[in-house]
Amino acid sequence: MSQKGFEYEENAYKALEKYDISTGGVAGASHDKPDLTIKIGNKKIGCELKNSPTAAGSLVMKYYKGKWDYGEYKGEPEKELLVSVSKKVNLLREMNTSGSAGKKWRESVPILQNTNTGSKILFIGDIKKLNDKKTAYKKDIENFGADNEIHIDVGSKAVCDYYIAKKCSYINIGTHGFFTLDGNDFLDLNTNLRKNNLATIPNFANNSETKIRLRCQAKSMSKMDYQFVLTLQFYSVKKSPYNIAPLRKGSNYEIDEKVLQKDPLLLAFK
Question: Starting at the edge strand that comes first in sequence, how are the strands of the sheet with 168-173 ordered?
Answer without folding.
Answer: 36-40, 43-50, 168-173, 177-180
